[in-house]
């Protein structure tokens, strides 16, 4: 974009921004916010020592036209590598320095997994639509006692919208954006007597940019665009069968088609991918008065069809999840939770027919926890899980989480927990890079910090330090998966939210993470930093301001520190460490609401048109881009 046009745009947007954190309330603390992810049942944040962030519906609405990857990339301690790249580029989730396979992603409390192993066991974020999300609860730290093997770095619970109010409510949005992008959502929801429902459809289409960056010395630097087309359908129903029993069947299907390039600085014209996710099941709750019994069943099918210059490949993975648990208020200050879950993953892939054939693994895990709730300011969680794995035997994990709230002004907390993670089916059995001799990973995690609420809760300050020690860590080295001796990561997070004036909200955050792996080389232990593509330092500034009743503006500045990548130059057989420079991105947002039922909005991203930074060595990033559109509710 020309400088003159850029200046006019900047003035017209009044230096607003895209800050998803802004709140219009006079209270910035989340002490009284009720969450479900910390303990698997509803509890105020003041009653738990877990480190949580809640992304509200209001914040989600200010990201229409964007993606879940964009929203998560603005959270403390989370880096989505690829969020600023071509929309079809894979989005790599790093949570407190750990890769995606160490984060559990839930939809309404049910794990959504990918047995194909393309992204470890975590679901591909490109398959997750944002438009029907009610809120997102981000739970930090090892949570294996309540959520199983993959919850080493944390848990992300995506809570979808449900039907309520009138029998029929219509809503939707339509967005136009850069690179010939169009996105639209249409939904119906409502409630009649004892039944509520929510149905929606989303379509997204973009020409994108070239996934690979042309070499600087290329004679013809013009690479073709690599587009993306995505469709998502969602339906959930709530049936109040009796006064105590509620049933909630659900179904989500989403797919995308994308083009991709041959590698760093390498264009391709024939590489195409088609991926799909079917997520379905049922949730049930039975009210006991002083507690509830919960029953969950989930099934996911992930299928990928890939055609490239190297040939065709199909990956087909199935995941099964069932769970029964109950919580009960023993006294006013003592709560108990007991449950059991079953998980199974299997591969039905033509790519795995030789030499291993169809493979599966499963585990059964009983678990239990006791909670002391606000006993003169003291709260405490003690829990354990016993995992019986079909391949790797039995393992016990635990959680100890005391916290103390002083005069509703200062919360102190400590978390000590352990984790157990079995290798994925792909890392074990892939004929290309699998290793059937892999051992499971074992983790011990430590976390401590405080949260202070000052000046009549107009200031909310949270400081957290963490340490994570992992044995038998699995890494992909020299085209094969291997166990290393151990992985040691540590870091700190600082979040400051304040409201200096009515209608004005500010949030500043900073995260530090460092880590190294220790392995044997020539009979001696060797340690080195292995946090590829993960910065030691990251942070951001978010400012939101309601100018008048119907006009809201905000700005978001995100800084990502220097990192390094493992880079294979075109035609090279040996990788080198390639440094990636630090970069800062400035985004802006504005909306105008009319009649309480609709709004006009505009997102402006990377407004300084920074094209020189790199998320992945040899791949392109989006320069200045924007989305504008309209949303409505009837």
Topology:
Blueprint: H1 3-12, E1 34-35, E2 43-44, E3 52-55, H2 57-61, H3 68-72, E4 78-81, E5 92-95, E6 103-107, E7 110-111, E8 133-140, H4 144-147, E9 154-160, E10 169-177, E11 181-192, E12 195-206, E13 228-240, E14 245-259, E15 272-287, E16 291-308, E17 311-329, E18 334-347, E19 359-375, E20 378-389, E21 393-406, E22 410-421, H5 425-429, E23 441-454, E24 459-471, E25 474-477, E26 480-483, E27 486-501, E28 504-521, E29 524-528, E30 537-548, E31 551-560, E32 563-567, E33 576-580, E34 583-594, E35 598-605, E36 625-633
Parallel strand pairs: 6-9
Antiparallel strand pairs: 1-2, 3-8, 4-5, 6-7, 8-9, 10-11, 10-36, 11-12, 12-13, 13-14, 14-15, 15-16, 16-17, 17-18, 18-19, 19-20, 20-21, 21-22, 22-23, 23-24, 24-27, 25-26, 27-28, 28-29, 28-30, 30-31, 31-34, 32-33, 34-35, 35-36
GO biological process, one term: monoatomic ion transport
Membrane topology: Multi-pass membrane protein
Signal peptide: 1-22
The CATH architecture classification is: Beta Barrel
Give the domain tally.
1
- Decide which structural class fits the backbone: mainly beta
Examine the coordinates and then state which fold CATH places here, giving the name of the CATH topology. Answer: Maltoporin, Chain A
């Amino acid at each position: 974009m020309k400088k003159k046009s850029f200046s006019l745009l900047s003035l017209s947007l009044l230096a607003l921004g895209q800050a998803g954190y802004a709140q219009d309330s006079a209270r910035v603390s989340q002490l009284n916010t009720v969450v479900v992810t910390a303990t698997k049942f509803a509890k105020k944040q003041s009653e738990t020592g877990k480190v949580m962030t809640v992304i509200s519906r209001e914040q989600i609405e200010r990201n229409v036209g964007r993606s879940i990857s964009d929203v998560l990339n603005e959270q403390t301690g989370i880096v989505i590598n690829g969020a600023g790249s071509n929309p079809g580029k894979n989005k790599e989730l790093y949570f407190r320095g750990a890769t995606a396979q160490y984060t559990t992603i839930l939809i309404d409390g049910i794990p959504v997994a990918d047995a194909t192993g393309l992204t470890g066991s975590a679901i591909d974020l490109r398959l997750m639509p944002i438009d029907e999300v009610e809120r997102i609860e981000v739970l930090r730290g090892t949570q294996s006692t309540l959520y199983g093997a993959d919850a080493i770095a944390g848990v992300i619970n995506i809570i979808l919208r449900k039907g309520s109010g009138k029998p029929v409510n219509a809503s939707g949005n339509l967005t136009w954006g850069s690179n010939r992008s169009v996105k639209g959502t249409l939904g119906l929801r409502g409630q009649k007597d004892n039944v509520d429902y929510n149905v929606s459809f989303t379509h997204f289409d973009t020409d994108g940019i070239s996934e690979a960056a042309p070499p600087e010395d290329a004679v013809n630097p013009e690479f073709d665009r690599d587009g993306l087309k995505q469709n998502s359908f969602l339906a959930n129903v709530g049936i109040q069968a009796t006064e105590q029993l509620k049933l909630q069947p659900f179904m989500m299907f989403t797919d995308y088609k994308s083009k991709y390039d041959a590698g760093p600085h390498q264009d391709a014209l024939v590489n195409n991918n088609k991926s799909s996710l079917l997520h379905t099941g049922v949730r049930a709750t039975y009210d006991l008065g002083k507690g509830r019994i919960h029953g969950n069943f989930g099934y996911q099918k992930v299928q990928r069809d890939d055609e490239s210059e190297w040939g065709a490949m199909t990956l087909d993975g199935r995941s099964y999840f069932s769970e029964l648990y109950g919580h009960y208020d023993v006294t006013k200050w003592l709560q108990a939770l007991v449950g059991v879950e079953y998980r199974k993953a299997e591969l039905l892939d033509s790519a795995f027919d030789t030499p291993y054939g169809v493979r599966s693994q499963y585990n059964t895990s009983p678990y239990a926890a006791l909670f002391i709730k606000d006993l003169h300011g003291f709260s405490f969680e003690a829990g354990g899980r016993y995992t019986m794995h079909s391949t790797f035997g039995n393992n016990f994990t635990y959680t100890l989480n005391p916290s103390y709230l002083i005069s509703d002004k200062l919360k102190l907390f400590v978390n000590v927990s352990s984790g157990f993670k079995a290798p994925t089916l792909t890392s074990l059995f892939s004929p290309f890079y699998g290793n059937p001799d892999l051992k499971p990973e074992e983790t011990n995690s430590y976390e401590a910090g405080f949260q202070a609420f000052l000046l009549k809760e107009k200031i909310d300050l949270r400081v957290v330090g963490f340490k994570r020690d992992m044995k038998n860590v699995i890494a992909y080295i020299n085209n094969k998966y291997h166990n290393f001796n151990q992985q040691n990561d540590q870091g700190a997070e600082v979040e400051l939210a304040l409201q200096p004036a009515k209608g004005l909200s500010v949030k500043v955050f900073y995260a530090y993470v460092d880590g190294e792996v220790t392995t044997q080389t020539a009979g001696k232990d060797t340690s080195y930093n292995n946090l590829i593509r993960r910065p030691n330092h990251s942070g951001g500034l978010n400012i939101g301001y309601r100018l008048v009743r119907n006009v809201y503006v905000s700005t978001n500045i995100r800084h990502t520190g220097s990192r390094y990548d493992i880079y294979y130059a075109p035609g090279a057989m040996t990788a080198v460490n390639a440094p990636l420079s630090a970069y800062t991105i400035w985004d802006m947002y504005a909306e105008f609401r009319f009649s309480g039922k609709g709004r006009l909005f505009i997102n402006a991203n990377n407004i300084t048109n920074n094209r020189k930074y790199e998320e992945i060595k040899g791949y392109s990033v989006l320069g200045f881009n924007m989305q504008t559109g309209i949303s409505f509710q009837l």
